[in-house]
Request: fold
Amino acid sequence: MYPFDEQRCSIRIDVPSSEQQYVYLTNQTMDCSPDVNEVFLFQLSKCEVVKGENSTHFIITLKRIPVNAIFTIYIPSLILLGICQATVYFKAEHFKTAVPVAITTLLMMYTLYTSVTRNVPKTSNLKLIDYWLLFHLIVPFFVFIILYSQEHWVYPGISTSNAIKKQKASNLEEIGKKIDYIGRYILPLVILLFVVFYVITVLIITAI
Reply:
């Protein structure tokens, strides 16, 4: 669940049978006071001591502090996605400007994705940050498709290629208009729903 995960560290001390008559382990509480509860990128959320017959088990729960990930991953990627989505509303004559913005956003998101995956522990399951970054990789690709349909199918009469618009809209133009509608109205709603669902999921996980 990186970067909203918890790590459990445990230490078990056993007394050998040959030393049990000389050593006795007492059960005492561990100090997790607020002045010592932060360790680098983690916060001590729970300390336990489990006393066995001839052993003592120390369990320390560390909760990751996500502030660094929020300011270096989530906020920048959300800003990039907003800039990429804004290109859908550019005028048709700015096609040569909008496409490089979408492609640049895709490349920057891929760079961010690779840098993040390189620095986190490798696991067999997808982490929360993976879902976030994969979504931000997919959206610029769809934006590129939408921009292409706007240029060649929706507004051929005013495009930079100066193609002559036909009197009757072809089937391709009708498809382009539907894609344009999806890009202008449906895609922003999908992005909003994804962000809201993601935030709710994080709040549920952190509350457990």
